[in-house]
Amino acid sequence: MTNLARGRIALGLAALAAPKLTVRLMGMGSGTDAGRDYLVRAFGAREVALGAGYLLSGDESGRRLWTRLGFAVDALDTLSAVKTRPGLPLWVTAGAAGVAGGAAGLGAAKVARDLLG
After folding, report:
1. How far apart are CA 47 and CA 94, in angstroms?
2. Source organism's superkingdom (predicted)?
């Protein structure tokens, strides 16, 4: 989970620093769009917060909480990717759903392990 948290921070910082480039590299548009850039930066801030929250948790109960929050966000991101499929190329949707779904899978496994011992 530590590497996932670090990845969240890296992606979040990229989205905050260069929203246009982040969107273009993800295949989700190009050009200038102030509204889109705002949402990409908000996404970036969310990712930094989730990653930093996990890494800065002082104890195991804090890490469990941040893992559950990350799992919920990743599951919703996966559903959002599937919902937007008609408006995006298949490779973009597959990539977004794959990354979010993979992170959700890791989160689900960790949550299950925490609950079941």
Report:
1. 20
2. Bacteria
The answer to whether the CB of 98 falls within 8 A of the CB of 106 is: no
Task: For residue 52, give the nearest of 42, 61, 62, 39 by alpha carbon.
Answer: 62
Q: What is the pTM of this model?
A: 0.90
Residue 84 DSSP label: T
For tokens 């925490």, name the residue: 114
Say which residue the tokens 């993800």 belong to: 26
Residue 1: both structure tokens together: 């989970």
Q: Are 80 and 30 in contact (CB under 8 A)?
A: no
Write the CB contacts of 80 (distance below 8 Å, at least 6 apart in sequence). 100
Domain spans, the chain: 2-116
N-terminal to C-terminal alpha carbon distance within the chain: 17
Tens of pLDDT along 47-97?
999 999 999 998 999 999 999 999 999 999 999 999 988 888 899 999 999
